[in-house]
Amino acid sequence: MINFGKIKQMPGQMAQAKKIYDIQRKLEGNEAYIEEDGIKVIVKGGGIMPKFEVKTLEIDGEENRKLMEKINKALKKAFDSNTKRIQDMSGDLQNMMK
């Protein structure tokens, strides 16, 4: 049997998804800059589901690529974990709508 109540909700859900996508696109290019105690860090990313990346990491004027790579690896691991959790949750939601 077809549940027409759920079909009627689809246009509203599509509009909401488009708003979220538009906000994500606007925010993802944001950069944050901090320089304190001889340490300079520039981080790029943001949005509803942020994927951050350290672009520059300097300590006392010297770039520290090894530390930057390790931080980026940890950020990627956290992002991938969150992405999987969101996919699992959205799969659960899709099953509920059937």
Concise structural overview:
The protein has 98 residues and is an alpha+beta fold.
Structure report:
- The protein has helices at residues 4-27, 65-97, and strands at residues 31-36, 39-44, 53-59, 62-63.
- With 98 residues, it is α+β, with helices and mostly antiparallel strands.
- It has one domain (4-97).
- The protein has a four-stranded antiparallel sheet, with helices on one face.
- A hairpin with a 2-residue loop joins strand 1 and strand 2.
- The longest helix is centred in the C-terminal third of the chain and has 33 residues, at 65-97.
- The mean pLDDT is 76.
What descriptors fit this protein?
58% helix, four-stranded antiparallel β-sheet, alpha+beta, 2 helices
Task: Furnish the topology, listing elements before pairings.
Layout: H1 4-27, E1 31-36, E2 39-44, E3 53-59, E4 62-63, H2 65-97
Antiparallel strand pairs: 1-2, 2-3, 3-4
Arrangement of strands in the largest sheet = 1-2-3-4
Question: Which outline best applies?
Answer: elongated
Number of domains: 1
Q: Name the assembly state.
A: single chain
Order of helices and strands: HEEEEH
Given helix and strand content, the structural type is alpha+beta
Spans of 5+ residues with little confidence (pLDDT < 50)? none
Number of H/I helices: 2
Task: Please compute the radius of gyration using only Cα atoms.
Answer: 20 Å
Roughly how much helix do the residues carry, as a percent range? 55-70%
- Strand residues, percent: 15-25%
Tell me the major beta sheet.
4 strands, antiparallel
Give the overall pLDDT as a whole number: 76
The number of E-state strands comes to: 4
C-alpha termini separation: 10 Å
